[in-house]
Design goal:
This protein is about 35% helix and about 15% strand. By secondary structure, it is of the alpha/beta class.
Length: about 475
């Protein structure tokens, strides 16, 4: 096929001879998913003379790092003559064997794991929750293509992807439905912030299981609470922590907390996406009586991170929510380099009371009033669920809304009317009313609203400033 392409199109090869193909190998890549990944590995093993770059995903071919190293040497090449971008998802049936191969290769001197071609020749992208399907393949190829033909892939050219070789939790390390709140809160990986995973402004039985706690008895005003999602979230955060990733960031200094102890009940849980990617702040509701993060912000943050976005779930004080969100935005902006995020094109999300917070701080005038900072840009999008917020201003951000038609707390007509007013001001909007849904359905799994988060992410992207 290579000669056919060379003879038809303009390429870096002078002609379609074998010598010309070898001479132009730095400008050629081979990629594949599943069985195509196996073919990619075989091409690496026996056709290094034709390709420099390889993108295998979710399909292994062997498990010996030394065998691969010897095949490189047999072809007359060294560690400086190739780069592999490998990828798989944690729920992919091929994940275990694929990762074992990557780990075996990484243990051999021929292969060096790095986040850029300048420092190594092997990169492994792991996507939490991704399985063996077309969407996963598309995501891997999209990320991998940003690495190719980058003049050595120097650090400044390495795109928005990041090294993420997390070791999965062993089965006996994972939380399960019958794990208790105490099991989670007292797990050493959560330090002294584990209590903030659950509502600190409500009486929560520490002997209750994760299945029992995942109900409207705990999360008042909410519906369609998924116990399995609760388990997934605490295991995700634990795995991130075990692998050395900081998952919680206080937004106030020790001195500020000393002067006002209530500020100890605040902070940001970080659900990492791709390095250098945009960020979102998720604000759960709770009627400004408590923070229902486990249903109304953690799941959203986790799904956003699976799509490559950096997401922060804010734990705030119900009595001073706007100040805490303003402080959170300020903290993220001031620590953008440390957090490895794009601080410009961010979005604010919220459900119920949290949606009021997002809309308020999404307004340019209120943002300045509450942060006192002119250097912090306005959010490029506000994502709102089920709230009766009806303020309208030309300083409001582009706004996406979804709500149920059977919501007895937040009228869908009120939300629709507000968006119509924003449209008249020339502000982009998108509105969805889901037939029969009540208040507080979160991600809406198992309902007519399931999948809405993909629409919201697309709306956010459509309003990014180029």
């Amino acid at each position: 096929m290579i000669p056919a392409v060379i003879d038809t199109y303009s390429t870096y090869a002078e002609d379609s001879s074998h010598d010309a193909i070898v001479a132009s190998r730095d400008h050629r890549a081979f990629a594949g998913f599943s069985m195509g990944s196996v073919q990619t590995w075989r091409t690496f093993q026996y056709n290094l003379d034709a390709f420099r770059y390889f993108m295998p995903s979710s399909g292994n071919a062997g498990s010996s790092g030394e065998a691969y190293a010897q095949l490189v040497r047999n072809q007359g090449y060294t560690a400086d003559d190739f780069f592999i971008f490998a990828a798989s998802g944690t729920k992919d049936f091929a994940y275990g064997s694929f990762k074992s191969q990557i780990q075996a290769m990484a243990a051999n001197d021929m292969f060096t794991v790095a986040d850029n071609e300048q420092d190594g020749n092997l990169y492994f992208l792991e996507k939490e929750g991704y399985s063996h399907d077309g969407y996963a393949a598309m995501t891997y190829f999209y990320n991998g293509l940003t690495w190719l033909f980058k003049d050595g892939n120097a650090k400044e050219n390495s795109g928005t992807t990041s090294v993420n070789i997390n070791t999965p939790l062993a089965e006996n390390e994972k939380f399960i439905l019958t794990s208790t709140v105490r099991d989670v809160v007292q797990d050493e990986v959560f330090g002294d912030f584990g209590r903030l995973l659950f509502p600190v402004d409500r009486s929560v039985d520490e002997n209750a299981t994760l299945e029992q706690i995942s109900s409207s008895n705990t999360y008042v005003w909410y519906n369609y609470i998924q116990p399995e999602k609760t388990v997934e979230i605490v295991n995700y955060l634990k795995e991130q922590s075990v692998n050395g990733n900081q998952i919680f960031y206080p937004i106030y200094s020790e001195e500020e907390i000393k002067n006002d102890p209530s500020k100890a009940d605040t902070g940001l849980f970080f659900f990492r996406g791709n390095s250098g990617e945009k960020f979102a702040v998720m604000n759960a509701g709770g009627g400004f009586a408590y923070v229902g993060a486990m249903h109304d912000s953690f799941p959203h943050a986790l799904e956003a991170s699976k799509n490559g976005y950096n997401a922060f779930a804010l734990i705030y004080r119900p009595e001073d929510p706007y100040s805490d969100l303003a402080q959170a935005i300020t903290y993220i902006h001031d620590h953008a380099d440390e957090l490895q995020i794009d601080s410009e094109n961010y979005s604010l999300w919220g459900g119920s009371a949290g949606a009021r917070m997002a809309a308020t701080l999404g307004n340019a005038d209120y943002l300045y009033q509450l942060t006192g900072r002119k250097d912090i840009p306005q959010a490029v999008a506000v994502i709102m669920q089920y709230t009766g917020y009806n303020n309208v201003s030309s300083s409001d951000a582009p706004t996406y809304v979804n709500v149920g038609t059977s919501d007895g707390i937040a009228s869908w007509r009120t939300m629709q009317s507000r968006l119509a007013s924003l449209e008249k001001l020339g502000i982009p909007t998108e509105f969805h009313a889901y037939e029969g849904l009540p208040h507080g359905y979160g991600l809406g799994k198992g309902t007519v609203a399931e999948g809405w988060i993909n629409d919201a992410l697309s709306f956010w992207e459509s309003n990014v400033k180029k």
